Amino acid sequence: MEALAKTVRISARSLGRAGLVHAYGHCSARVDADHFLVCPARPMAQILPGEACTLVPVRGALPEGVLGEVRLHQQIYQRRPDCGGVIRFMGPNVMALAALGRVPAMRHGFGTYFAPKVGLWDDIQLIRDEEKAVGAIDAMGASAGLLMRGNGGVVAGESLEEATGLAFYLDDMCRIELAALAAGLADTPEISAEDAQTRATRAGRIFGRMWDHLTFGDPEKTA
């Protein structure tokens, strides 16, 4: 389990370096059908090598000291047995578009990984109870991503390494959408569902290379 905890810490710090989290945010990785590991409840860029992560049940009460929004992670792991990693993050473009109550269209390659579309939870209140967590993940639907109005986003991947890449992708997807809105071109055609299915490949170490990019120089990765 320590190897998985190291991956959680590396992911947390990489998201901080990339500016996708700041004082707030959390990431987790599935241990088995009934448990996952979540990063320490403090700014992710400041998590220390070897620092303990917390084992959390997929169902049931959160352990003491675990942030209330980790209920979002629980809901995803309950519903998606193939999900291995979840990230709650505040990328600047995700925050901006979510504040507008909009979701990005599929306009470039990164966006195709969120087909059929990014979900939207249209409620500005923090998610600190079971009812809101259920509602938010209901709104996420089958997508790999969710925007929460005024509160950033969530992504889910087959692994935490993949989820880390998806966080970068979703923020870039929102960047493109904001550029389209600013240029008055938001009504241009989206990528088709058929083209999206073909483009959203995992071949060629797509996520492995993004993981290498985001985690380069991490003290635990190079140790």
CATH 2nd-level architecture: 3-Layer(aba) Sandwich
Largest sheet: 7 strands, mixed
* CATH domain topology: L-fuculose-1-phosphate Aldolase
Tell me the name of the CATH homologous superfamily: Class II aldolase/adducin N-terminal domain
Instruction: Calculate the mean pLDDT score and round it.
Output: 97
DSSP E strands, number = 7
Identify the strand order in the major beta sheet.
3-2-1-4-7-6-5
Q: Helices and strands, in N-to-C order?
A: HEEEHEHEHEEHHH
Distance between the termini: 18 Å
Q: Which percent range fits the helix content?
A: 25-40%
Beta-strand content: 5-15%
Number of domains: 1
Name of the top-level CATH class: Alpha Beta
Structural class: alpha+beta
**Counting H and I runs of at least 4 residues, what is the number of helices?**
7
Output the radius of gyration.
16 Å
Low-confidence region ranges? none
Described by the principal axes of the CA atoms, the overall outline is globular
Description:
It contains 7 helices and 7 strands. The radius of gyration is 16 Å and the shape is globular. The chain is of the alpha+beta class and 223 residues long. The two termini are 18 Å apart. Helix content is 39%, strand content 15%. β5 (119-121), α4 (130-140) and β6 form a beta-alpha-beta unit. The protein has a single domain, classed as Class II aldolase/adducin N-terminal domain (L-fuculose-1-phosphate Aldolase), CATH 3.40.225.10. The chain has a 7-stranded mixed β-sheet with strand order 3-2-1-4-7-6-5, with helices on both faces. The longest helix has 24 residues, at 160-183. α2 crosses α4 (130-140) and α5 packs across α7 (206-215). The model has no long low-confidence stretch (mean pLDDT 97).
